[in-house]
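I have been asked to look over a protein record a colleague put together. Alongside the sequence sits a line of tokens, each denoting a local backbone shape. I have pasted the whole thing underneath without changing anything:
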Amino acid sequence: MPSLSLGTRLAIIVILGSITTVGAVLAVAYKALVDDFEELLTEQQLVETRRIASEVEQRLELKLDVLSESAAMMTDGNNLHSLTELNYQLNRQSLLRSLFPDGLIVFDAGATAIAENIHVPGRVGTNYSDRNHFRRAIRSRAPTISRPILGRTTGVPLLSFLSPIQSDENDLLGFLGGTVNIGQTSLIPEDMLKRLRDDQDRFKVIDIENFLYIEGGPSPGKRVQPLPEPGEDPLVDAALSGITFGTVTDNSGQQLIYAASHLEDLGWMFVRSVPYERATAPANDSFLNFLWISIAISLVIALLGFFASRSAVRPLDRMTETIEQMAQSPSSGQRLDGKGASETRKLAAAFNQLMAERDAISTMKENFVSNVSHELRTPLTSLNGALRLMASGAAGQLPEKAEEMAQLALRNGNRLHLLISDLLDFSKLTAGQMNVTLSALPLAPVIKAAISGNTALAAEHNLSLSTEGLGEQTVFADEHRLRQVLDNFISNAIKFSPPDQPITISVQPAAPGFTRITVSDRGDGVPEQFENELFERFSQAEVGTSKSIKGTGLGLAICRELAQLMKGRVGYFYDNGANFWIELPNYKTEGITIDESAGPSS
């Protein structure tokens, strides 16, 4: 991210971290929700199947209890009643008949049927001692229930209930039996079956010994049906595998949550299943609520993170602004504010220490330049005076060649004198020791004097100096320092103007209460990339003219400082040539403060 600021990077990191964290929490939360609802739904199915098994077991116990109570009525205490009396007793027991709608039978002690309330051909006289439940009953003399069997004479699937008939001395006299045709009569209450038979819920009763559906087979209208072959019904396979609960996918691809409970007395398994969507639907609803809350929290975290990151880098931004100001005004002597985090304070302290060392070096350099300039000025003044006397013939007429050399030496001496004066002036300006005397100053005499002083130099380069708009304008300025600024602007125009082109000094109103003096030439102007550094010290732009003379690069910087001392400002613009201007307050606006950030008016 090379183009992004540090604050933006921190904000992005915080936001991405928040999104990643919340996303991970959401993923874990959703998985936990689905698991919880799946576990809850599985537990519900287990409870339901156990309740059904318990209900069936209670109904079986009820049948056995009533059958046991009725068995005592089949004897006189010593022997079984007569057949007539037995038939009478079987027919008068209405509760017993309702509990065993498929027949009541009286057996003798050898397990041979001797009486029945519903006639079935061939049943009376048939011996059943080979049946397992009869063997258990004879051996234990306790009420017994058979596993699902086929009736020996009826050929239908049924449950056989036996209760021993005993004498007063506990001798076994016979058995009272009842049958329930499980192909027609359900042991599960009808209201419970109706609730269990839902369009999506599935309920099955499986006989695991005979591999039969007792309830819930695939063929409607048939109660008892054979189980499918292994692999044909995944739900049956899962229930018979010994795993009493879990998930399974049926042949249609629907995922189911199932639970199974085993009724040991009958060898039946009660299996109930519901679609897996029953667990994911409430999980999705809860997850959506959690999602919106998480999004809101994420936004809050992101905003807090953004503001925190911006707050963390704000001291760095302030430092950057201060450094940029220091770069634009190296002599401002600003320092960084050491506030904020420890890293920021350390950076500010290190930079301030660096600036202190720089200022010390700069002060030493300026003092050195000032001292050297002062030391050079005195002998240079004497040297220039001597050269001037020689060139004027005060020491006698010089040979032509010697006179040319004296004039050359004088010109370079004067140039050197100007350079030293610039260095001294700038040293004073930097040290705050330059004094100006502001007063009402008519412009016409000052501009005319500047033109007169530079006419000879202009003539050497075939250039002319003229004025525009010059009238009775009066400004509030220092005459000597204004002349210094105008001389600098005019000499630069002469240096960089093409031959035979006019140089114009124009005067016009500027911002309210100010007058602008503009020196315009017809040169190539200042390179665009150099305009921002034009009035900085030691700055020079080469424009390729043969008249370009190297200097100190301080002239325009001195002009800017002098203009500010006179409560004015300087500037530059290009319009068919270079245009350097200075704006000064009119005399009637004495003491006005100029906004240095305002751009020049054109």
In short: The CA atoms of residues 156 and 403 lie 153 Å apart. DSSP finds twelve helices and 19 strands in the chain.
